[in-house]
Request: fold
Amino acid sequence: MTTPNVPELVPPQRLLLGPGPSMVHPRVLRAMSTPLLGHLDPKFLEIMNEVQAQLRAVFCTQNRFTIAVSGTGSAGMEAALVNVIEPGDTVLVVVGGVFGMRMTDIVARAGGRCVKLDIPWGETIDPGRIEDALKKEGKVKAVALVHAETSTGAQQPIDGLGKLCHQHGALLVVDTVTSLGGVPVEVDAWEADAVYSGTQKCLSCPPGLAPLTLSDRALEAVKARKTKVQSWYLDAGMVADYWAEGKRVYHHTAPISMVYALRESLRIVLEEGLEARFARHRRHSAAFMAGVAALGCAPQAQEGRRLPSLNCIQVPSGVDEAAVRKYLLAEHSIEIGGGLGPLAGKVWRIGLMGESARQENVLAVLAALEQGLAKQGKGPKLGAACAAALEYYGRA
Amino acid sequence: MTTPNVPELVPPQRLLLGPGPSMVHPRVLRAMSTPLLGHLDPKFLEIMNEVQAQLRAVFCTQNRFTIAVSGTGSAGMEAALVNVIEPGDTVLVVVGGVFGMRMTDIVARAGGRCVKLDIPWGETIDPGRIEDALKKEGKVKAVALVHAETSTGAQQPIDGLGKLCHQHGALLVVDTVTSLGGVPVEVDAWEADAVYSGTQKCLSCPPGLAPLTLSDRALEAVKARKTKVQSWYLDAGMVADYWAEGKRVYHHTAPISMVYALRESLRIVLEEGLEARFARHRRHSAAFMAGVAALGCAPQAQEGRRLPSLNCIQVPSGVDEAAVRKYLLAEHSIEIGGGLGPLAGKVWRIGLMGESARQENVLAVLAALEQGLAKQGKGPKLGAACAAALEYYGRA
Reply:
């Protein structure tokens, strides 16, 4: 067996303005480099309690079961779904992008009968359609939908949906991967039952954990299961006993350094204050979109439903979009995202999430986009997009 | 919603000599605090290639599918099992401790028919029993067993088992969570088909990733499945496309900082050299066990099958074992492990894994154990255990 020659780790410095990870604050990087406690150390159990309290604050919930799943955002999605779904259960899934599609895949693997409610990518669903489906489909176990669709930049209003679901005996499952910490997420006000997120978006923490909160109603559904949860690793009952104060039954080994990182990133979120943070996300997204209009790029998401944290914009016709992204990375060390699925090659996705949502970054990416388009003989006179953004900042 | 008051992160410094996490080298902590690349950045893809090459070297395999699962060791166990097992498949599981038991739970959740081969906790199985079961049970999909049983400190010889399984058309699944990097793990020589580990044991990396390697035979079984893998997150086919050079199909977001940490910890492992590292683990375990004999503690694992990385010793009769562990943590800031399952209250588990396997640590924990026993009026004259260990070091 030959020993691979792996040199010192010296990655280039990037400005991360893609769909995630977002920029990470130096305080979070420092927290992550703290020497480890054992995962059953009384001092680490205190840290787990603190993280739960912090997560309740950002989720706006009193839910006892509010934890960080030991995996990335997709593990959070799987945990939320496989715990409440049993084979044969009917689940309504709203599909308006890649992450709605992913939900349907997971529902099917859990043995659920998946009823898809399709909407055009970039649009959101009218609650009336959900109500009609609930009436039509008979007993529905859960309604699952995405609050912030990372593949289209659309933001789905959730208000009132919990009540609607409960009137029909269904649970409400919500994906807040790209909204938590950047856009209001009101778990209790929504009456949502299973809500998950990821750490590497608006929380500006490295990827590796998935915040998850379950209502008592969801926990009752878990308790009433006739079959075991298909995943041992993500079994909410066992994970709850591991996180529960006073219990701490050994289940798996929590990713200790990631918990340190999440704790520090949540401290930063709560120091800034949720309202101030949401306002900052709105402000820089609006400035960016003002600049983007000058570039001739239309937003992908429908008017009034644009997600400030993830700005999905259409590539102007005749532009080689991959070449522009390559130019941004090679010449400016800026990462932005391309399109996923049917939107591949048609959109750019610019994340202004958490630490990334700053005026200097808005100007940096607009300038680089202008230059990238200019190299293809496209776009406005250089400086127009930055000027439009600054004009917005001057007004706002 | 009240904002929780969470102070600066200042955990106490611990000497980690429990069943994991083990001590982490400062170079690994530093690597983890490196600013992030995006997970689809070409430079990060190079890093993924490097980690795969490093993992092949420590697993002693040429397997193309050699990756780090985005979860802790238990996620590795679940990934190894749920990818090869389909509902109705017969699986032989050797159970001689908590982690063998966990395998049976996961096999059942995957719909497998689990045939348990029980052995006393601390002992290992004779290949003849596996052969008899293979002959008796008809078509067996897989044989699953634990190389290094963390709950008992027993090390199961694996040589020849792959060939035996293949003669009967079965796959061999091996848990090397507490052996990889500390004890020889020879995936290709064993002809093992699915082998997984954790990062927080002999690799001395924080928990959060699970090294996993699949043979081509295992991949064929995955490809030949009639049903989808029950877990979307752990689906080996999708994960393979994410890790495959030249493909890199977006699946989930890898925990980037943890990959940095694993890369650095594997650099340290390979700089030391596997043979030297194994010898170091044997040496310090032997010295520790010499000291432990002076304390009047017998090893839990049978003679000739003792795992050097995890030393499971019986608590002398009449000793309040929890009080001793509490004393070690409070007065010496040393973490050791208690017993799990039927061994709770009966054994201590002292991990001398990776960076933890050092003479100073052996002496530190022996001295503290002597003092802890003395507080209960037990144990030898103070200094006897350390003297016995030093006597061993002098001889060895």
Summary: The first strand of chain B starts at residue 15 and ends at 16.
